[in-house]
Structures are given as C-alpha cells and as structure tokens.
Design a protein that fits this description.
The structure is a single chain. By secondary structure, the protein is an alpha/beta fold. The chain has two domains: about 200 residues, 2-enoyl-CoA Hydratase, Chain A, domain 1 (Alpha-Beta Complex); about 50 residues. Helix content is about 45%, strand content about 15%. It has eleven helices and ten strands. Strands 1-2-3-5-7-10 form a six-stranded mixed beta sheet, sandwiched between helices. Strands 4-6-8-9 form a four-stranded mixed beta sheet. The mean pLDDT is about 90.
Length: about 270
C-alpha cells in the first residue's frame, strides 16, 4: 500500500523502514503509527523480508508522541478507530510496539538523531541498535509529569540494568551516543555519514544467513528472558534444533563443512 509518512525500501532481503516526518522530528501522530503498524505486520508475514532496519528521515530518529496533533495516538474516543486498535494497550502506540516486539525476524534501529519517549521505545524493542555520533536518547516522560510507557519499563532494565534504567526514567536526562554505548544501550557508534552503510552491512550479513535458524534463536532468547527457567529453555532449544534440522540450510551447513567451503544459505 502507498504510505505518506513512512518510506519502505528493499534490498536483498533487507527492508529499511524510514519514519518520514522530518519537519516534526518524526514524531508519532495517528497516521504514522497506523502506517508503521501495517508495514511491520506485512513485513513480518513476508518470507522475502529477512531483516528490518528502522531509521528516521532528517536530523531525528523519532522524538516521541506528537503532542501537537489534533488527535493523540492513544486516543480511543475518535469515531474512526478500529476495534482492533481500540482494544490495544496505548491504542495506536500499542499496535506498533507490540508488532515490533512480536516481529519474528532480526530488527535493527539505525539511530540517526534524537530518540525520545516513544522513539526511545522503538529503538529499545529492536534487537540491535547502531547509533550515529549525533544520536541522543531520553526517557523523557518524567519531564511531562508522566510515567514511562510503550514497553520502556520492560526493555530498558534488561538492556542497561535496573539502577541505570531507573535513573534514566526518573530524571529524563538526555544521553549522547558514546554514553549510550558505554552503558550497553547501543552496539556501536559511527560517524553520521557511515550509519546506514554500517546498519545495512550488518543486516545483509544476517539476511544471507540461515533465516529459519536465526529466527528460532531470536524466539528462544526472548522466550528465555520471559521464562527465566533453565529446563524451559532447554525445551525451547530442543524444539528449535528439531525445526532447523528439517531445513535446506541445515543440510547446506553440513555439506559446506564437509566440502571445506563457505555455505550458501537460502533461508529455506
């Protein structure tokens, strides 16, 4: 479907979703939330999509909720809202965040500028974060007299630890890219002009891998974080091992080892 507030580009199994409201620092109004939710669902169902990169147009990644919009993204009283959206926690925000949290393939946030509020949440929910030297991060809700939302209280402590997560949420401080790297919030920091090349290079490496095994490993890791039980995790690993063994990539991995060559994975 044609989009007005996001851009979707495809390259060799890597899809780049760009939040495209640069004049509003890619803030989240109902339209961009609806379009992002639909695109994420479509890409999750598309076998040709191997890896998702999310970034922002212009000088921001995403500045969070658009508080100047006539209708806010969590407003369930508007007459045209769908039943599906009305029943989600945080309504339109909930659809995007839950869609990302349930996204089966690897997801990478290429953070090019400010990532605040809901924008921070989007970056946190992605599996990997790569930051430009211009990137900044803020759990800004407390500055508006609000509590953290969009899943931040779930993901942030798991990434940076409880004490640091509480500090960031209690103060709303803006931290720069190097500090984000130091505390483990981002994988790496690169010059602004190298950001998308770095993200695409890593994404293409994953896209050329055995997609079934990669997606099973993602599921195992997140299920393990939720379950926090060793026996349950062994069961997840056993199931993943069985499913991966039935794939062409499993056989290709074995054959390439025996033949002493690099594997040529197809994602099947």
């Amino acid at each position: 479907m044609p989009y007005q507030t996001i851009l979707v580009d495809r390259e060799e199994g890597v899809v780049t979703l760009t939040l495209n409201r640069p004049e509003k620092l890619n803030s989240l109004d109902p339209q961009i939330l609806d379009e992002a939710a639909e695109a994420i669902q479509e890409l999750n169902d598309d076998d040709e999509t191997k890896v998702l990169i999310i970034t922002g147009a212009g000088r921001a990644f995403c500045s969070g909720a658009d508080l100047t919009a006539p209708v806010l993204g969590n407003d369930t009283t508007v007459p045209d809202i769908s039943r599906r959206t009305r029943t989600e926690p945080f309504a339109r925000f909930g659809r995007v965040m839950k869609g990302l949290a349930n996204f089966a393939k690897p997801s990478i946030a290429a953070v090019n500028g400010i990532a605040a509020g809901g924008g921070l949440a989007i970056a946190l929910i992605c599996d990997i974060r790569i930051a430009s030297e211009d990137a900044r991060f803020s759990a800004i809700w407390v500055r508006r007299g609000r509590g953290a939302d969009c899943g931040t209280s779930f993901y942030l402590p798991r990434l940076v630890g409880v004490a640091k997560a509480l500090e960031l949420m209690w103060t709303g401080d803006i931290i720069h890219a190097k500090e984000a790297e130091r505390i483990g919030l981002v994988r790496s920091v690169v010059p602004p002009e190298n950001l998308m090349n770095e993200a695409r290079e890593f994404a293409l490496r994953l896209a050329r891998g055995p997609s079934v095994a990669i997606e099973l490993m993602k599921r195992m890791v997140y299920d393990g974080l939720k379950a926090n039980d060793f026996s349950s995790q062994l069961s997840h690993e056993d199931f993943a091992h069985y499913v991966a063994r039935l794939t062409e990539d499993w056989q290709e991995g074995t054959n390439s080892f025996i033949e002493k060559r690099e594997p040529r994975f197809t994602g099947r």
